[in-house]
Amino acid sequence: MKLHESKYVIIDWEPSTSIISYIYTPDADERMTAYDFKYNMTAYGNFCEKYQPERLLIDLRHLRFTITPDLQEWTAKEIAPRTTSLQRMAILVSNDIFAQVSLEQLMEEEGIADKYSAPRYFASESEAKKWLTA
């Protein structure tokens, strides 16, 4: 069920598997602004509070936006505390090395990654979902 769609992000919810998906669109590039990032992350935080998902799938395959240290810190302080129901996180990796590294830094910020059962990185959506629901 599609919960949110913007130029840069789609957020889906699968109640039967308790998976919330945060999917970057092909437009998620250097034209994306800090405001756009925060707007979409705030929507994600709202949905996490409302639906209490147990699993998160982040699809970075189209991401070409670098998440700056300021945005990493903001996410750790403003969004991560709203996602306490999450138990597992699967990440579909980006081909953009800068986008990928910035997400890995975000996961390390304030110990976000420590709150999940060892976030795992995948190239395939089917493999990621298989692991999430195992």
Number of domains: 1
Radius of gyration: 13 Å
Order of strands side by side in the largest beta sheet? 1-2-3-4-5-6
Our measurement of the CA-to-CA distance between the termini, rounded to an integer number of angstroms, reads 21 Å
Helices, by number, come to 4
Query: How would a textbook summarize the main sheet?
Result: 6 strands, mixed
Percent of residues in helical segments?
25-40%
| Nearest-integer average pLDDT | 88
CATH architecture: 2-Layer Sandwich
CATH superfamily: STAS domain
Based on DSSP secondary structure assignment, what is the total number of beta strands?
A: 6
Strand content: 15-25%
Q: What is the N-to-C succession of helices and strands? A: EEEHEHEHEH
CATH topology: Transcription Regulator spoIIAA
Low-confidence segments: none
Backbone shape:
globular
Report the CATH C-level class: Alpha Beta
- Specify the structural class: alpha/beta
Structure description:
- The chain contains 4 helices and 6 strands.
- The chain has 134 residues and is α/β, with parallel strands linked by helices.
- The protein has one domain (2-133): Transcription Regulator spoIIAA.
- A 6-stranded mixed β-sheet has the order 1-2-3-4-5-6, with helices on both faces.
- A hairpin with a 3-residue loop joins strand 1 (2-5) and strand 2 (9-14).
- Helix 2 crosses helix 3 (97-108).
- The longest helix has 18 residues, at 34-51.
- It is globular, with a radius of gyration of 13 Å.
- The two termini are 21 Å apart.
